[in-house]
Task: inverse folding
């Protein structure tokens, strides 16, 4: 019995702006700051390798100083809409009925909802009353792969079942209006909002790439490298500039033993499905994979088109591969990094 990824779908919020249209809002936000600092911030946005980003809020709302309560209300309202939309899209693509889903995992870290999003989706789409729920929070950019791993383990233990993994993030709702730190600036320059849904199955008749193996890798003494600090003004980004170097130092331990366990090497992996954390992280990983004769062109393209949408982004990369005719027997490696600090990996075989 194998577990397969059957379908990937995405949904985007109603608001979007190319980067050049964000710059005038930056000028207003930066009014009164030193001119040199203003030029530096503009340059960060222009060089972030993100051409466009989507948002659950208009640019005017993002750059208006409002309370955590007000922004979280928008988050709660809009992610509920996106959750319903993206699962409907995935079900339509697959031809599955809503009541055929046995397990639902919702992933998000950029707002707070209790009940969690999955409870609303059950009502909105009429999912089964005995469906198993798992909301995944506080795992940041890695959680798209984490949710995939949790769904795989459930399906492996329960043959003949189906699962939905829904990742929805709104980093723009965490923008700190009175914070002029480089962390706030850089996160605003690289992040965007978006939603994605995986449909997975342990039914023999359902097709898709098989999950061969999965694993997590936890870095010691790195809990301060990435995450959020809860402030009265909302969720304040934590992002250490040493993250790319940390990834580079641990890269062989993240990749090689995982592949060796499955009796393959990096040369045997045909498709790299890597989460685009940001330009510097992408450049670091591209250099590492490039030395091994591989590319992460799809990762760079997702960053350019949408920005980093935290947990949902790696699923956008995966969708690009799922839409191609990939020969049977080829391998794909999903990889993302998140708070902890940790690396999450999934090995796929078509």
Result:
């Amino acid at each position: 019995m194998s577990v397969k990824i059957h379908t990937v779908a995405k949904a985007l919020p109603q608001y979007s702006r190319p980067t050049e249209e964000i710059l005038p809002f930056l000028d207003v936000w930066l009014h009164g700051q030193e001119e040199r600092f203003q030029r530096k911030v503009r340059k960060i946005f222009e060089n972030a390798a993100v051409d466009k980003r989507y948002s659950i809020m208009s640019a005017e709302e993002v750059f208006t100083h409002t309370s955590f309560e007000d922004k979280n209300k928008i988050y709660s309202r809009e992610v509920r809409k996106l959750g319903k939309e993206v699962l409907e899209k995935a079900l339509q693509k697959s031809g599955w009925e809503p009541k055929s889903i046995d397990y639902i995992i919702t992933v998000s870290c950029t707002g707070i909802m209790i009940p969690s999003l999955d409870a609303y989706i059950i009502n909105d789409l009429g999912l089964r009353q005995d469906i198993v729920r798992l909301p995944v929070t506080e795992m940041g950019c890695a959680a798209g792969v984490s949710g995939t791993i949790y769904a795989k383990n459930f399906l492996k233990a329960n043959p003949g079942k189906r699962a939905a993994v829904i990742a929805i993030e709104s980093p723009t709702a965490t923008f700190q209006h009175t914070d002029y730190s480089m962390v706030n600036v850089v996160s605003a320059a690289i992040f965007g909002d978006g939603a994605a849904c995986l449909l997975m199955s342990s039914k023999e008749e359902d097709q898709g790439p098989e999950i061969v193996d999965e694993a997590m890798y936890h870095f010691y003494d790195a809990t301060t490298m990435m995450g959020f600090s809860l402030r009265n003004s909302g969720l304040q980004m934590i992002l250490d500039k040493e993250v790319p170097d940390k990834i580079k130092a641990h890269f062989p331990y993240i990749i090689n033993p995982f592949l060796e366990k499955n009796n393959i090497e990096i040369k045997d992996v045909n498709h790299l499905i890597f989460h685009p954390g940001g330009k510097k992280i992408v450049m670091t990983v591209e250099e590492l994979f490039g030395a091994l004769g591989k590319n992460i062109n799809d990762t760079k393209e997702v960053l350019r088109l949408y920005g980093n949408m935290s947990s949902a982004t790696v699923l956008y990369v995966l969708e690009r591969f799922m839409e191609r005719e990939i020969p049977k027997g080829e391998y794909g490696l999903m990889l993302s990094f998140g708070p902890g600090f940790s690396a999450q990996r999934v090995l796929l075989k078509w």
Remarks:
- The chain has a mean pLDDT of 93.
